[in-house]
Amino acid sequence: AASDVYKRQPFSLWWCGMVYDYALWRDDADFVRARMPGVRAVVDAFLAYRSADGLVVAPPGWNYVDWTTDPAWHRGVPPGGEGGVSGILNWQFVLALTYVASLEDWLGEPESAARMRRYAEAVAQATTAVFWNAERGLFADDVAGEHFSEHAQCLALLSGLVDSDKQARIAENLLIANDLTRATIYFSHYLFETYRMLG
């Protein structure tokens, strides 16, 4: 039962990313293949929390993302991350799905890769529909659109599933908006990856 809880926590999505990173840096398909049942179990655990609108509802437990000092983040959990719907958690899931799709491709599993891409695109579309704030040119963290962070923008951009117009607006506003919840050192890798991607 304890292992089932861990499969549905946000850090398990980063673990999928760690398997992806390992595959990038090591020529060890057997090791990666041996991790795939666990990777697929994490994806399936999160898919079980999708609502009728296609968004992942925050699973029970500690949905930690970063140790930001923003008071809207309780114990490192972003707005909407405690029993609600969080833009950040949904973009994190989309990013993980893109990683898993690549892993499936590398292991010669095109049907599984296509399934992961379909889910990634569906969750990205649902997340964009609910969390995109056209006035600000940013993704909100919460359904009410009251909170915005570097985290949501980074995860959305890194997923590769944001259209070019929105991508350009986010790139500009990520640099100039002075009210975004800032990433701490824990999340800085993804912030730096985003800046690298944006040139």
Provide structural commentary.
By secondary structure, the chain is an all-alpha fold. It is built from eight helices and two strands, in the order αααααββααα. The protein has helices spanning 2-7, 10-25, 29-47, 87-106, 110-131, 150-159, 164-176, 188-198, and strands at 132-133, 138-139. Strands 1-2 form a two-stranded antiparallel sheet. Strand 1 (132-133) and strand 2 form a beta hairpin. Helix 2 runs antiparallel to helix 3 (29-47), helix 2 (10-25) packs parallel to helix 4 (87-106) and helix 3 runs antiparallel to helix 4.
Main attributes of the structure:
199 residues; mainly alpha; globular; 8 helices; two-stranded antiparallel sheet; 2% strand; 59% helix
Report low-confidence residues grouped into runs of 5 or more.
none
Give the SSE string: HHHHHEEHHH
How much of the sequence is in beta strands? Answer: under 5%
Q: Look at the structure and give the mean pLDDT.
A: 94
The chain-level structural class is mainly alpha
Biggest beta sheet summary: 2 strands, antiparallel
End-to-end span in angstroms?
44 Å
Q: What is Rg?
A: 16 Å
**Into which percent range does the helicity of residues fall?**
55-70%
Specify the overall morphology.
globular
Strand order of the largest sheet: 1-2
Number of strand elements: 2
Give me the number of helical elements. Answer: 8
Please provide a brief summary of the model.
It is built from eight helices and two strands, in the order H-H-H-H-H-E-E-H-H-H. By secondary structure, the chain is mainly α.
